[in-house]
Amino acid sequence: MRTEPAGRARFPVGLTLAAAVGLAILVALGMWQLQRLTWKEALLTRIAKLETAAPIPVATALDGAASPADLDMVRVRVDCPELSRAAYVELFGLKDGTAGRRLISACPVASSRYRSLLVDRGFVAEDVSARPGQEGPLGPVSVTGVLRVPDSPSIFTPKADPAGRLWFNRDIPAMASTLGASRPAPVMLMAETASNPEFSALSPAPIPAAISNRHLEYALTWFGLAAALLGVYGALLRKHFRS
Predict the structure, then answer these.
(1) Confidence grade of residue 135 (pLDDT, cut at 50, 70, 90)
(2) What 3-state DSSP class applies to 223?
(3) For the residues 68-97, what does the mean pLDDT come to?
(4) Which of 12, 17, 19, 16 minimizes the C-alpha distance to 226?
(5) Integer angstrom CA distances of residue 156 from 87, 152, 168, 169, 224
(6) Whole-model pTM?
(7) CA pseudo-torsion sign 124, 130, 86, 77
(8) Using CA atoms, how far apart are residues 224 and 30, in angstroms rounded to an integer?
C-alpha cells in the first residue's frame, strides 16, 4: 500500500474546491454588473434624448418598430376615449421612496398590429384610499407619454391578485385580459400628462428624475472580493504546507 511520506501535508482538496466555487460566484457577479453597466449607460443615453424628443403618433411608433425593444423610451401621443373614467387595475410601486399604486387602464389604438395599449395613468400614494370616480369629463383624453418595455419578474416578485386587480409587475397580457382589452401592444405607455386633473392625488410618474448608475462600483467591489479571496486562499495554502 502506497502511503504519503512522513511529514508531507496532503493537498487541501476541500479548501481548494470551496475557494474555486467562491471565486466563480464573485467573478460571475462582477461580470453581471458590467453587463448591467452597459445596459444602464444605454438607458441613460435614451433618457437624455427624451429631453428634446417631440411626441409622435402612437400608431406610427407601433407599426414602424421592428421589435418591442425599438419602442422602449419613445415619446408618443394618443387620444384615449374617456380615459379619465376608464376601468383600471393597480400596480404596486414606489415613487421617491413612498409606496403606492399605479393605475393602469386600456386605451384603444388605430394600429395595424395591435388593438389596445395599456396606459400607466400615474401614481397614488398608499395612504390615499380615494380613486378617480366615474364623474370625469366625457370625450377622449389626449395623453403624451413614454413607451416602456416591461421588465421580467424575478423569483422574488409576489404573485398577482387578479381578483383584487393588483399586480406587482407589468404583466401586460394578464392586465389586458382583466381589463377586457384585445391584442395589447407589448409595451406600456407611461403618461406624462394628467388623465384626471381634478384628482390631484393621481400623479403622472413616467420616468424617475434621477437614475443611479453605480454598476461599475459594484463590479469593482465583486472583483476586489475575488482578489481578496485568492489572497486568503494563497495564505492558507502556504500555512498548510509549512505546518
Answers:
(1) low
(2) helix
(3) 91
(4) 19
(5) 28, 11, 10, 11, 28
(6) 0.75
(7) negative
(8) 9
